[in-house]
UniProtKB/TrEMBL annotation:
Keywords: ATP-binding, Hydrolase, Kinase, Magnesium, Manganese, Metal-binding, Nucleotide-binding, Phosphoprotein, Protein phosphatase, Transferase. This is protein-serine/threonine phosphatase. It catalyses: O-phospho-L-seryl-[protein] + H2O = L-seryl-[protein] + phosphate. InterPro entries: Bact_Sigma-Reg (IPR052016), GAF (IPR003018), GAF-like_dom_sf (IPR029016), HATPase_C_sf (IPR036890), HATPase_dom (IPR003594), PAS-like_dom_sf (IPR035965), PPM-type-like_dom_sf (IPR036457), PPM-type_phosphatase-like_dom (IPR001932). GO terms for molecular function: ATP binding; kinase activity; metal ion binding; protein serine/threonine phosphatase activity.
């Protein structure tokens, strides 16, 4: 052919090269084939227009799925779609392998496009390309396994740091980058979120880079389209301004992919290679899939971190700092939010200086573990602090707080004639609360309780008692509920624990088994600090031990994997009364007041005594002491008009200890022994003390009297000298207040 002769028609040239043309209209679902393309697909050699389903039946099913993914990638990136496909005959046999290259043309809507391309028969894969073609099963299986593993690892990553660590460890099948970087944006600036394969500080020139800069990552963020650079020459030609920044890393190929979430480009991912990579459609498909998973993982991690930061700040802003220091007392507190969700809830604690010079300690739990509970908690805490600061007594503080909570929850639930909105509670919320007013000078505690767990006392020698206290319904249930107060003294060397039910019931425990667990922790704990619980450090150590007993190591406020294992919020408050310097506390002492209107507290006193004598050597002496305490307290309530004050004390070393119990009342009538008949229902009080106690007596006071008895651990059951104390009378004919 002479050079001046016209070129032959394109169709003739392609036919001579055994290359056909096809056009696929995605919107219409039609595929047009020229004669050569029809022949290659096993059809008569003439131009034909077929449905998409008819053409699909000519390809191997696996390869059709492959070409679908390649085409979608080409449409998204505006690049060529290239793949190898097996052609099947009517009997399902492979008759040939073809190579197709096509260019997508998008018509406005990315979902509507045309593919215009060529199809050519091939006899064997190109050298080195076997592992990168859709028809090669080994590479496909490796890729699918890699993507499954990568997807699982990225889905499990819980923070941005973990996502970056997973991305750095990805080993792609057949081509693995040795340099990675994740870029984000702040305003109109590019930021480096993390990188791998470079030295610390190498990210400096790329941080705070303007999005208008001639840098591939900036272009990717601007356009949302990937950039593939197969060689340094291509990089230098396309991005001459930023090439000097990349040149010093000695890489040969680069892939910059957009990180897209919900249609919005949030950043870019760089994968850099020390060897040339041609970025075939299969390789681009893998990189694009990883970029999508990476974007989703970073979005989830960023959202979770923002929520944790927000809720952590919200919860911390609602919790007080303990202070100022209380003379003669130490205080420690812990708050740990529930696992999962927003990690906010309704548990709280507070310490309030009172006008009287005393200190109020408050702990409570608003129903629920959500933002609504946290909001109500904040309102209730402020209300309690206000009522306490006005100087009201504990019962009055809780009564006012009860009416306050009932008012705000009732109005939010039923105040609108249109009914509760989507963000309002269908039912009123309630809250449990324990309010303690402490006198640092005397150790006297006045307690009012609203449906909350009772306090626990750890004595100086480690003995633990749960102190039953009078109480009323939780706050917010009934606006007219009264909250009686209970008074007792915290002795030098003793520690009071108050907490929410999260500390007790977490881990499948109920109130009984949960208290047993807490009691064991308190009794077995031996502070590492030489000063023990007398120091703030020792009390802080005990607070940590209590929290760790429930769910493992903790800080003052815990997040992360441990947080997800928690079933409820935990709030803990410890109050320790310091003993005299140099004094080693070995005794146990408890003081209880039984009011005339509280006869049911006699049973609590008996239980208190049994817990106090848990390690007493003689069980018969314990039973005798409990019987005598019951007799003395009952007689005061029945035969006098005053309250009964019970003081029980264990003194001495184990094995030779002495138990002394005093019951004091305001009546001046002294007891007298009587000899009741067989059918008499009273009159045996002093006779029982004569028989059972090691010693006993009656001490007149300025107003009233004190009846006491003692047991000795080393004495035989019921043994010990029987002696009357000062003021004892033996008039058999007199009235016996102990009857």
């Amino acid at each position: 052919m002479r050079t001046e002769d016209p070129l032959p028609p394109v169709g003739d040239v392609l036919a001579a090269l055994a290359t056909g043309l096809w056009r696929w209209d995605n919107a219409a679902g039609k595929v047009t084939l020229d004669a050569e393309a029809a022949r290659l697909l096993g059809l008569p050699g003439e131009q034909v227009t077929l449905t998409e389903a008819a053409v699909r039946s000519r390809f191997h099913p696996v390869d059709w799925n492959e070409i679908s993914g390649v085409i979608q990638l080409a449409v998204a990136e505006g690049t060529l779609a290239e793949a190898r496909l097996r052609i099947m005959d009517d009997k399902g046999r492979v008759i040939r392998t073809v190579r197709s290259r096509c260019k997508p043309v998008v018509h406005g809507n990315p979902g509507a496009y045309e593919l215009i391309g060529s199809i050519q028969e091939v006899t064997e894969p190109a050298p080195g390309a076997a592992a990168r073609t859709p028809v090669t099963g080994d590479w496909r299986r490796s890729r699918e396994a890699f993507l499954l593993d990568a997807g699982r690892a990225l889905a499990e990553a819980r923070s941005t740091e973990e996502v970056l660590r997973v991305a750095a460890g990805l080993s792609m099948p057949g081509f693995s980058p040795d340099g990675l970087a994740v870029f984000g944006t702040e305003g109109d600036r590019l930021t480096v979120i993390g990188h791998h394969g470079q030295q610390p500080g190498d990210e400096g020139p790329f941080s705070a880079m303007s999005l208008d800069t001639d840098y591939p990552a900036a272009e990717v963020v601007r356009t949302g389209r990937a950039v593939y650079l197969s060689s340094p020459e291509e990089y230098r030609r396309r991005y001459p301004v930023s090439w000097p920044l990349a040149q010093r890393f000695d890489r040969q190929s680069w892939a910059f992919l957009p990180l897209i979430v919900a249609g919005r480009t949030i950043g870019a991912w760089l994968a850099a290679f020390t060897y040339p990579v041609s970025f075939t459609p299969d390789e681009r498909s893998v990189l694009t899939t990883v970029a999508r998973m990476l974007a989703q993982a970073l979005s989830r991690a960023g959202t979770a971190e923002s929520e944790r930061e927000l809720t952590d700040g919200l919860q911390r802003s609602m919790l007080p700092t303990l202070g100022p220091e209380i003379p003669g007392m130490n205080v420690a507190a812990r708050y740990v939010p529930t696992g999962g969700g927003l990690q906010v809830g309704g548990d709280w604690y507070d310490m309030i200086p009172l006008p009287s010079g005393r200190i109020a300690l408050v702990i409570g739990d608003v129903q629920g573990h959500d933002v609504r509970a946290a909001g109500l908690m904040g309102q209730l805490r402020i209300a309690l602090r206000a009522y306490a600061s006005e100087g009201h007594r504990p019962d009055a503080v809780l009564s006012r707080a009860n009416r306050f909570l009932h008012g705000i929850t009732d109005s939010l639930t039923y105040g609108s004639t249109a009914g509760p909105g989507p963000s309002e509670d269908p039912e009123p919320r309630f809250a449990t609360c324990l309010y303690v007013e402490a006198d640092p000078k005397t150790g006297v505690l006045e307690i009012a309780r609203a449906g909350h767990p009772d306090p626990v006392i750890r004595m100086g020698d480690g003995t633990v008692l749960k102190r039953p206290t009078a109480g009323g319904l939780p706050l917010g249930v009934d606006p007219d509920v009264d909250y009686p107060t209970t008074e007792f003294a915290l002795e030098p060397g003793e520690t009071m624990l108050i907490c929410t039910d999260g500390l007790i019931e977490t881990g499948g425990h109920d109130l009984e088994t949960g208290w047993s667990r807490i009691r064991s922790v308190l009794e077995e704990h031996r502070p590492e600090n030489p000063e023990g619980l007398e120091s703030t450090k020792g009390l802080e150590e005990l607070a940590d031990v209590l929290v760790q007993a429930v769910h493992g190591p903790s800080s003052h406020h815990t997040t992360g994997p441990l947080a997800d294992r928690r079933e409820d919020d935990i709030a803990v408050l410890l109050l320790h009364r310091s003993s005299e310097p140099g004094r080693v506390v070995t005794s146990r002492r408890t003081v209880l007041t039984i009011a005339q209107a509280e006869p049911e507290r006699v049973a609590g006193a008996r239980q208190q005594l049994r817990e106090m004598l848990h390690d007493w050597a003689d069980a018969d002496q314990i039973d005798s002491a409990v019987l005598l305490v019951s007799e003395l307290l009952t007689n005061v309530l029945v035969h006098t008009d005053s309250h009964a004050l019970l003081v029980a004390e264990v003194i001495g070393e184990e094995g030779t200890r002495r138990l002394r119990i005093e019951v004091t009342d305001a009546s001046d009538d002294l007891p007298h022994k009587r000899r009741p008949g067989e059918l008499a229902s009273s009159g045996r009080g002093l006779l029982l003390m004569e028989v059972l106690a090691g010693s006993w007596g009656v001490d007149p006071r300025g107003e009233g009297k004190s009846i006491w008895f003692e047991f000795y651990e080393s004495a035989a059951p019921g043994g010990g000298a029987l002696e009357g104390g000062p003021g004892y009378g033996a008039d058999a004919d007199g009235d016996d207040p102990l009857a």
